[in-house]
Specification:
This protein is α/β, with parallel strands linked by helices and 359 residues long. It is built from 15 helices and ten strands. Helix 3 packs across helix 4, helix 3 packs across helix 7 and helix 4 packs parallel to helix 5. The longest helix is centred in the middle third of the chain and has 15 residues.
């Protein structure tokens, strides 16, 4: 029987060392690590590089947030809390609402009005969350959530809650277990910056435990219109089609910079056009339908390859993993807007169909 991440990696999760502690799980984790041999050369990777996609869209609510949420809600349940609260650009609200409903708890979501994809919002609503839309951006929403949770018996389940990072680090464990070692490079999108923090922690801990012989260079990518870590200052009005990373003041700013520097990696930006191109490319070449923000690391890999970043690494075979953080069904409207050919209407007879498909 499939188990969730806490059962699988309990020995590396100090908050859950006690096997009698209650766990709120939807059997998250164990997401596929997909070889991407067709995509790799199209992104410009050298022939001695292997590319793998860690597709977190296969988690129960369709994103990586489930890893942290099983930990956060489990701990909240143990503490006797009855209500959880989060600010969200979409995925956090979906995960919080699902896990809280599983735990017989209430969920309150604060989100920026008009800024969340309907696919994500519908998830929070169907799970019974109280969703409150405010004027302002994600950072304004998070400020309100932090203030309220500090004064009332409500559990904050954003990634500023440290146990969220503990849950999310398990994705790095899974990659090491699947490959037999850590990759040489790990690319991922950066929004609130909790995930790059979590992956780096996971890789470090598995290396320290003797489960991996190396630690990867962490390659983080932000959208150009929402790139505070790249620019070095907060963005008051972040702007990008990649709603999941439309965040102007990342909560894990300091930790993300540390992950970048400690791993000898980088955090760069890519344009919306580059993101959308990579978004369509991975779907058409590898059959992976991810939400737009997920394509940022793929666009980033291509940008680095064009700048010959990988050229010096020619002495052996190298492995790059890229985390695609959420499923494309989170934002189906974007897919429809992105494709150049839509539905073609034809007469309902055999000849018309054969002509249309080239036979």
């Amino acid at each position: 029987m499939r188990t969730g991440i806490i059962e699988t990696y309990r020995q590396y999760l100090p908050d859950f060392a006690d096997p009698a502690a209650p766990i709120v799980s939807l059997c998250e984790g164990n997401t596929p690590l997909i070889a991407a041999p067709r995509l790799a050369p199209l992104l410009g990777l050298p022939k001695n590089f292997r590319l793998f996609i860690k597709f977190e869209g296969m988690n129960p609510t369709g994103s990586f947030k489930d890893r942290g949420m099983t930990a956060a809600v489990s701990l909240a349940k143990r503490k006797g809390m009855q209500v959880v609260m989060c600010a969200s650009t979409g995925n956090t609200s979906a995960a919080a609402a699902a896990y809280a409903s599983r735990a017989e708890m209430k969920t309150v979501v604060i989100l920026p009005r008009g800024e969340v994809a309907l696919g994500k919002l519908s998830q929070a609503l169907i799970h019974g969350a109280k969703v409150l839309a405010i004027g302002g951006n994600f950072d304004d929403a998070l400020t309100l959530v932090r203030e309220i949770c500090a004064e009332y018996p409500i559990e904050l389940v954003n990634s500023v809650n440290p146990v969220r990072i503990e849950g999310q680090k398990t994705a790095a464990f899974e990659i090491v277990d699947a490959l037999g070692d850590a990759p040489d490079f790990h690319a991922l999108p950066v929004g609130n910056a909790g995930n790059i923090t979590a992956y780096w922690r996971g890789y470090r801990e598995f290396a320290d435990a003797g489960k991996a012989t190396r630690r990867p260079r962490m390659l983080g990518f932000q959208a150009a219109g929402s790139a505070p870590l790249v620019l070095g200052y907060p963005i008051e009005k972040p702007d990008t089609i990649a709603t999941a990373i439309r965040i102007g003041k990342p909560a894990s700013w300091t930790q993300a910079i540390a992950a970048r520097d400690d791993s000898q990696g980088l955090i760069h930006s890519v344009t919306d056009a580059q993101i959308l191109d990579a978004y369509a490319l991975v779907a058409r070449t590898e059959g992976v339908f991810a939400e737009p923000a997920c394509a940022a690391p793929l666009a980033g890999i291509r940008k680095l390859a064009e700048a010959d970043y990988f050229a010096p690494f020619a002495d052996r075979e190298y492995t790059v993993t890229a985390t695609l953080t959420g499923h494309g069904l989170k934002d189906p409207d974007r897919a429809v807007k992105t494709v150049t050919s839509g539905i073609v209407e034809v007469d309902g007879e055999r000849g018309a169909i054969l002509r249309e498909i080239g036979f």
